[in-house]
Design a protein that fits this description.
alpha/beta; TIM Barrel; 41% helix; 14% strand; binds beta-D-fucopyranose
Amino acid sequence: MKTFPDHFLWGAATSAFQIEGATDEDGRGPSVWDRFTAEPGRIRDGSDARVACDHYHRVDQDLDALSWLGVRSYRFSIAWPRVLPTGRGAPNAAGLDFYDRLVDALLARGIEPFVTLNHWDLPLALHDAGGWPARDTVGAFVHYAEVVMRRLGDRVRRVCTHNEPWCISTLGFGKGEHAPGERSWPRALAAAHHLLLSHGHATLAIRAIAPATEVGIVLNLVPTEPASPSEADREAARAFDGGFNRWFLDPLYGRGYPLDVVFDHVHAGHVPGPELPFVHDGDLRVIATPTDYLGINYYSRAVMRSAVVPEADNSPPTVVASGDKTDIGWEVAPSGLHAILRRVHAEYAPPKLYITENGAAYGTAPDATGRVRDLARQRYLWTHFAATHQAIADGVPVAGFYLWSLMDNFEWGEGYTQRFGIFWVDYATQARLAKDSAHLCRRIIRANALVDLEADLTEAAA
Ligand code: FCB
């Protein structure tokens, strides 16, 4: 049996806005996502997150699920607007108390907390004052990080500044698919820069308060391949990889912004020239502040075909994915996880890597006997565990794996249409039910090894 290293941190992940609900209780202020979900046409099923999984009132039950699963760690995010309802000034005591109790309750169960500071729910007042495209937001984030770490830093050993700055900047300000729903590349680029800059400053501030705590950032990375060896397809893959992966990895690891991508933006008219207007002297040094780990969220890969195809070739000028897809339309590609882990290790060499999210959207519902036979999710997870095991065997220092997600939840622009949980959530009753995939994960975590999936399935069916 393939075993994982001793102390491998098996975990499950969630984020505040996606599960908590209680959006106007105990002094929580509004966030950009509360406004975005209230705007008509923004969310696929017209839903919002005012109740979500009602986790705010069901914490104990959800902690019981984590204990049953046997995870050694739990990655959750702190709702910035619970702690600082208008983003600045004095903290809201009730907000901090909620997370203080959560941390204590986890530790009492022997589960290590892994705190995400910014999983997208920027206080609305900060957004209205300029938000991520404005440099002032950097200081506001550092203040928030300090407030949280002063309270929790004595017990929390792992913290991350931002979750997926690509999504906040590109989906939020470039493509308009996420809050705040803008379509402006100049503003998206400024937002990305201020996210990275605030990460660097916050890292220094967190270290000063909690020197024993590991600090890092979480990126969603998409390994990219050309659809053919043609020059045009290779160029398409270069551009995609540049904008998605290198735009964040390069400055974080001291290389500055990748020049080829800067020139793409100059050509497209997103910035006036190669001197990026939002970058001030010293910023790149702060962004490259050393961290303890890099968190990678991995879901799929990209296979790129150029828009510039010969006339005889009428292939669509799109991303081409060849394999099976999950319900959200993302290709199942475990080899991409192995590839991105090896690449990041070889090219950027973070001291340690965590897979901070991996999982799959499948709507498989309880059958007549009340069992969720989510075979596709079991195969997805098993093959991604195997890819991780292979990367570790190849020498990549992967220290943990967090399942996305503990339970079905509010999937941003997709509302409740996509179910990523290993626990089924019945939104009408708020009942939780362990899916077959949760049982599989429990066995794998207990064994700290890849149990034989097919044998496991046969046994479970018997
Ligand atoms: C990631 C997000 C997470 C969840 C998964 C499916 O981009 O970090 O909140 O939505 O995708």
